Amino acid sequence: MTSILKRYSIFASVPPRRFSGSLAIAVTVLTAATSLIHCWMNTIGVMMSIKMNALHLGTLMAIVYLFYPAFPASPKHRPSVSDWLFAGLSLFTASYVLFNLDRIMSAHMVLTRFDYMVAVAICVLLVEASRRSIGIPLTVLSIAFLAYARFGRYFPGLFAHRGFNWDRILLRMVFTDEGIYGTTLSVSATYVFMFILFGSFLAATHTSELFNDLAMALAGKFRGGPAKVSVIASALMGTISGSAQANVATTGAFTIPLMKRIGYPDYFAGAVEASASTGGILMPPIMGATAFIMSSFLGVPYSVIMLAGFAPAILYFLGIFFMVDLQAKKQGMKGLAPEELPSLKKTLRERGHMLLPLAFIMYMLVSGYTPLFSAMAGLVAIIVLSSFKKTTRMQWKDVIGALDDGARSAAPVAVSCAIVGFIVGSVGMTGLGQVIALNIMEFSGGHLWIALVLAMVASLVLGMGLPSTACYIVVATIAVPAMLSMGVPPLAAHFFAFYYGTMSGIVPPVALTSFTAAGLSGGRPSKVALVGLGLASSGLILPFFFVYNPVILGIGFRFDSFIFLCILAGLGIFSLSASFIGTWFSRMSIPERVGFFVLGILMVDPFGTARLIALTGFGVLSVLHFLVSKKRTRLDNPARGAL
Questions:
Q1: In whole angstroms, what separates CA 230 from the centre of its chain?
Q2: What DSSP string runs through 57-89?
Q3: Residue 85: per-residue pLDDT
Q4: What SS3 state is found at 316?
Q5: Among 495, 474, 496, 489, which Cα is nearest to 421's?
Q6: What whole-number distance in Å separates Cα of residue 134 and Cα of residue 412?
Q7: Which phi-psi region, left, alpha or beta, contains residue 347 (left: φ > 0; alpha: ψ -120 to 50)?
Q8: What distance in Å separates the CA atoms of residue 432 and residue 426, rounded to the nearest whole number?
Q9: Rounded distance between C-alpha atoms, residue 51 and residue 475, angstroms
């Protein structure tokens, strides 16, 4: 009985299928056609937003049903009959919305019985697609919000409302732009899909190998070199992937064995890769689906989000870099031998031209071109530039492979962006966001730091098991209004939600990115998650820093203030890093570690007195630690001290 339950468990995570033979060809036709349809929709195709979103979701849900098995016992190398049926229904419902929306709108949104049946089918198909490709947490949370919209009268206190009937809920969720086919899915159908496709084309030219070789050439010779390679390679990969788990799979397979070989414990190697790969989502120019959704929520050009993200992302990676360097010093490690390192000149000569599409797309965005135009121009640039060298030249099979990979990579993102429409729609119907904002304000007593801590806790709790995009949308919907009402600039408030949505992937107990890295490193998942959380601690502090110091995001930009705050943030991150690793000039005592930790936290404070105390204390404690370290060295090596 236990075996049967395990084989047919709805809670089990089943890896995507891999096809071969004629079946692989048939499925590739669907995925490649899906990518081409999206290229058409986002260029010369003119279509209503809801119709475009319906076509986007229907095609990508069909891909989910073909690639993601329903249960552990489902066929692994071919779709089952029910998978084909659900894929067909996904395409049918998309076509139904496409061809019947005009009739429904002309009838003043009065639905027929068959319209309601299609709406129910879309919701059920979406829930099942979410369970397969995203997992149980987001699926259950979304259903809970639907239940709240329907049964609000039974909730206690301020959370009670009169409730809505199923007819109205279905109408709002399916046939308006305030539910499934709302803003989040629009972003997925446009910017996100095209930039995922851009990353797939860049990956087809083996640019990931270029990033690995560049990182090896730049950092491999220094102490703890492979860990620094992991940090740099993950930052570079983040510029094109926008996916933490994709970063782990791409760079981790290369860097984790190297880290273990030079002496890093398996759990530490996995933690470095998990924390560094998580930072890939934060690294411009492609910051994952979340940044594009943030741009839509704020109503600002994506270039504003991209430019604001540079300084925080660099500071985040700087924190991990400090920690791996101090850990290498603590263990007495050295770098790799020169003969093991690739030549920087040779790497740039053979494949360096493939960095130009990234530079080109950043130039396009900063120059004011739309993300869609920039993505399409970037795709053309990749195809043209890759033809200059034999090592990067794309063949027809590479182009088809990139189209296939783009659609498959975008499918789970589309499903997550669609199902959070249940949450966004329910919050809009019930006013839950205002209720939570009011409660946060009352509980914090008007103190911003308390409200920020509450928002942080809510983000991390809600984010357990959720994709970063979904976590951001939930927090932006229910917690950001409280921050805005307390005077936090909108860009800073949304970046706060963005960072904690991203960090949810490495926060125990549900640390999906860390568990992926643990599978590659062989370390115990729980330990990889805990150490990874420590390595990424700068990402937990930075959101407070740029809420209190919004200049770091370019808000009210002044060059002198920006530089000073970057230096201050760097010192605070180093202080926290030294405290976590427990070494600097030498191993630290417990009081020293506590002191550096407190000083690192104090540097977040925007007020002059606390900042002056933190800077003075950091200087004094650093000098004392240096003197104590010199004394320890003389005691450990009396002969050397006598010389």
A1: 17
A2: HHHHHHHHHHHS-SSTTS-SSS--HHHHHHHHH
A3: 96
A4: helix
A5: 474
A6: 6
A7: alpha
A8: 8
A9: 28
Residue 110, classed as helix, strand or coil, is coil
Give yes or no for a contact between 420 and 138, defined as CB atoms under 8 angstroms apart: yes
Nearest to 219 by CA among 228, 231, 207: 228
pLDDT of residue 6: 52
Q: What is the pLDDT of residue 526?
A: 79
Ramachandran area for residue 289 (φ above 0: left; ψ -120 to 50: alpha; else beta): alpha
Residues of the chain with pLDDT below 50 are: 5, 639-643
The first and second tokens of residue 106, run together, are 């002309």
Which tokens is 527 given? 């330990």
Answer for the pair 274, 534: CB distance below 8 angstroms, yes or no. no
Contact 572, 548 (CB under 8 A): no
Helices 396-430 and 432-444 meet at what angle, rounded to 10?
70
| CA–CA distance, 354 with 9 (Å, rounded to integer) | 45
Give the amino acid at 193: F
CA–CA dist 468, 412 (Å, integer): 12
Query: How is residue 332 written in tokens?
Result: 């007495």
Tell me the torsion sign for CA atoms 251, 256, 261, 262. positive
* 70-99 per-residue burial string, b: 16 or more CB within 10 A, e: under 16: beeebeeebbeeebeebbebbeebbebbbe
